[in-house]
Amino acid sequence: MRIISFCADGIREAAKLGFYDWVLGQDADIICVQNLKAQEYDLQEDIFFPQGYNPYFFDSVAKNSNGVAIYCREMPKAIMTGLGFMDYDMEGRYIQADFQNISVGCLLAPSAYNGDNAAKAHKKQFFDLFYAHLTKVRNKRREFVICGNWNMTHSANDLQDPKANHNSSGALPEEQQWMDELLSNTGYVDAFREVNNDNDEFTWWPDNIPGSNGWRIDYQIVSSGLKSAIEYGAIYKKQAFSSHAPLIMDYDYEM
Q: Whose CB among 38, 127, 138, 250 lies 3.0–4.6 Å from 231's, allowing a Cys bridge?
């Protein structure tokens, strides 16, 4: 099973830069795309609905903002949109495809890179709720893969310049502690780090944070039952489709 996750920063722009041409040659079973900055009814061209995939979209009520999509080769048993977090669901941040024994979620977490206190509070509340959700669903008899832009680093190894960004949202000690607690206390695993521990692997190169270089904020977080199935992980950096690079993960798992 191959899953590719990509934060587009505008799916139309990413398509023009060749994202679909590239990704359709990757033999992926599931493609998760975040931050579409477009609503499904605005995407009329065939390129956004490739043959061989069942596409599902979850729009934000605010036009040209957020939005997530998931492309599945196999028809899911169910599609879930939103997390039941009231206002957050109106922002088009989460879509999930449920199969027989596994669920694959596509996440766009809130950011607070502008330093606004309201944005920071908004982000913190989301992650408090999300932690409770992830803990709760672990009681279900199925595996989970949560892909996407988490807008958060796990450790200093996920920053090209930790000293320059230690006071930036996404790299704050309390945010890294949140991720550490998730991975330490709930049985979830950072799939990429199971196969690659290099400290020069990044998925995002922000242009809105002074002094920033590379960050790793795009993850595939998987339930513990999939840990032994993780075979391969790579960040594709040969072509730029947005400020984020696609994350490719292979699992020894039959859907």
A: 250
Residues 6+ apart with CB under 8 A from 181: 131
103: Cβ contacts below 8 Å, ≥ 6 apart:
80, 96, 97, 137, 142, 143, 144, 145
Distance CA(209)–CA(2), nearest Å, equals 32
Cβ atoms 40, 57 nearer than 8 A: yes
Give every CB contact of residue 95 below 8 A, 6+ residues apart in sequence: 56, 57, 58, 68, 69, 70, 79, 80, 81, 105, 106
Burial class (CB within 10 angstroms; exposed 0-12, middle 13-18, buried 19+) of 200: exposed
- Indicate whether this model's pTM tops 0.85: yes
Quote the tokens at residue 20: 């679909």
* 219 closest CA partner among 240, 198, 244: 244
Pair 67, 86: CB distance under 8 Å: no
